[in-house]
UniProtKB/TrEMBL annotation:
Pfam families: Ldh_1_C (PF02866), Ldh_1_N (PF00056). It comes from Larkinella rosea. InterPro entries: L-lactate/malate_DH, Lactate/malate_DH_C, Lactate/malate_DH_N, Lactate_DH/Glyco_Ohase_4_C, Malate_DH_type3, NAD(P)-bd_dom_sf. This is Malate dehydrogenase. Catalyzes the reversible oxidation of malate to oxaloacetate.
Length: 309
């Protein structure tokens, strides 16, 4: 198994590090456009692996795509992150060119790869990667819901004063501060609906904190977060390479599911060796479906910007 991570910045390097530590592949390649950055970080990780008991070949590549040849999975994190006060949508012009170019370059050397798209605005970048590559829809997976759900479970565990390991909670819709939908109705604490333990006001606050989870970190750190996004990338890759068939909320191409078509949006999907294998098309209640439709409208507006670039 060979995995390439494009973008050796905060998210890409953390993702590659998590992939290596979990020995998800025999070979990991980190590629960046900045000379030396990926080689340096790959060498640092290789040295760390001697202390961590993991045996993975990690190499860096300064924009040489030949080194990525025959990758089974490619994670795209290249692009600019947001700064305080910016939305993910502000990044579209710059990142669209980067994601399109990177996808083309990767496909020249790894025609069978499964793509995980992390660059923001992720829903639109996933749609762009799918449309510009012409790949089968199951091989393009946008990462957003798995991270947003981790944030949702974090805030729930703080409110419940419990272990996040006992929580189930899913965030669907777009990966934006106003477009994501934490499904509080369906979240459970060891099988019991969280509404049994938390009042409506607390649940609303948990949902609101989740939605601005990324912005809160951007404000604190001065740039967007990387530990949880990198770990989320590795967890998603693990379900692919180990064919775990985990149900993970991911941004995938919809053709009528959840009442939406010709759009990439976050829904629960089964993730295995073939990429995303099946959408869990669960019936939402009226309020949730209305929020999902509103989220789709916002993402569609963003996708329209692609036509003007
Ligand atoms: N989907 C998510 O949940 C999620 C979470 C966090 C961050 N992000 C996004 O991930 C992206 C990366 O964030 P970051 O914090 O790692 O940024 P960063 O600036 O630390 O790293 C980005 C890297 O991409 C590289 N790059 C730029 N153009 C490139 C190209 N054409 N080819 C190869 N490499 C190129 C840069 O040199 C840089 O090293 C941003 O768009 C950010 O908004 C998404």
């Amino acid at each position: 198994m060979k995995i390439t991570v494009v973008g050796a910045g905060a998210v890409g390097a953390t993702c590659a590090d998590n992939i290596a530590r979990r020995e998800l592949a025999e070979e990991v390649v980190l590629l960046d456009i900045k000379d030396g950055l990926s080689e340096g970080k790959a060498l640092d990780m290789l040295q760390a692996s001697t202390l961590l008991d993991c045996d993975v070949k990690i190499t860096g590549s300064s924009n040489n795509y030949e080194l990525t040849a025959n990758s089974d999975v490619v994670v795209i994190t290249s692009g600019i992150p947001r700064k305080p006060g910016m939305t993910r949508e502000d990044l579209i012009g710059t990142n669209a060119n980067i994601v399109k170019g990177v996808t083309e370059n990767i496909l020249k050397h790894s025609p069978d790869a499964i793509f995980v798209i992390i660059s923001n605005p992720m829903d639109t970048m996933t749609y762009l990667a799918l449309k510009s590559s012409g790949l089968p829809k199951n091989r393009i997976i946008g990462l957003g819901g798995i991270l947003d759900s981790a944030r949702f479970k974090t805030y729930l565990s703080l409110a419940l004063k419990c272990s996040p390991n006992d929580l189930q909670g899913v965030v669907i819709g777009g990966h934006g501060d106003t477009t994501m939908i934490p499904l509080t109705r369906l979240a459970t604490y060891s099988g019991v609906p969280v509404g049994h333990f938390l009042d409506a006001e607390t649940l609303q606050k948990v949902a609101a904190d989740t939605m601005v989870g990324g912005a809160t970190l951007t404000k604190l750190i001065g740039t967007s977060a990387w530990y949880a996004p990198g770990a989320a990338g590795a967890a998603l890759v693990e379900s692919i390479v180990r064919d775990q068939k985990r149900v993970i909320p991911c941004c995938v191409y919809l053709e009528g599911e959840y009442g939406q078509s010709d759009i990439c949006l976050g829904v629960p999907v089964v993730i295995g060796r073939n990429g995303w294998e099946r959408i869990i098309d669960f019936e939402l209640n009226e309020e949730e479906q209305a929020a999902f439709n509103k989220s789709a409208d916002a993402v569609r507006n963003m996708n329209d910007i692609l036509k003007t670039l």
